[in-house]
Amino acid sequence: SLPAGAAPTATRLTVHDVQGRQVATLFDGALAPGQRLSLDWDGRDDGGHRLASGVYFARARFGDRSETRKLVLLR
Q1: Is 5 in contact with 33 (CB distance < 8 Å)?
Q2: Is the C-alpha dihedral spanning 14, 41, 71, 24 positive or negative?
Q3: Measured distance CA(26)–CA(12) in Å, rounded
């Protein structure tokens, strides 16, 4: 979540494969100060195709900040 008092921030949450290719966009919008975002990923790409089991990375960008987390998809 964003700190209270901050201006709304452009936020984008994407999923990437191990080669760095973006496979899914989970959120692309603005978050208000203090707003929390909770998302579930169904293991599909932006075209609706089921992705193979493996390691993926979730990347969150908020303004000029970025955070990346490892995901493991098991089918």
Answers
A1: yes
A2: negative
A3: 8
Task: Return d(Cα 51, Cα 37) in angstroms, integer.
Answer: 24
Kindly report, residue by residue over 4-61, the tens digit of the pLDDT.
556 788 999 999 999 999 999 999 999 887 888 899 999 999 999 999 999 999 999 9
Q: Report pLDDT digits (tens) over 19-33.
A: 999 999 999 999 887
Q: Where are the domains of the chain?
A: 9-70
Residue 34: both structure tokens together = 């203090």
C-alpha 50/C-alpha 43 separation (Å) is: 6
Q: How far apart are CA 18 and CA 27, in angstroms?
A: 20
Burial class (CB in 10 A: 0-12, 13-18, 19+), 15: buried
CA 62 to chain centre: 11
